[in-house]
Amino acid sequence: MTPEEIKALVRTVPDFPAPGILFRDVTTLISHGKGLSACVDHLADRARAAGAEAIAGMEARGFIFGAAVAARMGVGFIPVRKPGKLPVNTIGIDYALEYGRDRLEIDPTAIPQGQRVVIIDDLIATGGTALAAAELLRMASASVTHALFVIDLPGLHGAARLRDAGLTVEALMDFPGH
């Protein structure tokens, strides 16, 4: 399937989570076997081209796409978790959200010194979570130069923020508005 055919599998839900928002729901893509497989293939091709030795994905939908890409490539997956979810000593980073703050954590022993890690998530909006994940992975000695997404919402300028931070950013599709 082409990225355009995959894009047709993404459901748009108006007025969620607030009036005026068009929520791009990947649930319909994930539940479509051929669509999900094609999406993973496209992301894996891009991750291979970036020299990925491991894939990192942020909780929660980044786990779905990231783990599938890692398995397809035969490389490890690094879960970037919400606080308190890992049973070992972690390193973490606090970051700003549109309406508050949040935190991400990883197991730093899961990343060998200098390992080339590609970040994968379902959607790039403002870029805050992906920027925090890149910084956190770099704190753990990973080499992070690429971030891949299923969907970009270019009107929110997240991809531009990541590029300004030195990351190469690619998305399979984009949707105008937010």
Protein model, in words:
With 178 residues, the protein is an alpha/beta fold. The chain has a single domain, classed as 3-Layer(aba) Sandwich (Rossmann fold), CATH 3.40.50.2020. It is built from six helices and nine strands. It has helices at residues 3-7, 27-30, 33-49, 61-73, 128-139, 158-164; strands spanning 11-14, 22-25, 54-58, 76-80, 91-97, 100-106, 116-124, 143-152, 168-174. The chain has a five-stranded parallel beta sheet with strand order 4-3-7-8-9, sandwiched between helices. A two-stranded antiparallel ribbon has the order 1-2. α4 links the parallel β3 (54-58) and β4. The longest helix is centred in the first third of the chain and has 17 residues, at 33-49. The relative contact order is 0.17. The model has no long low-confidence stretch (mean pLDDT 96).
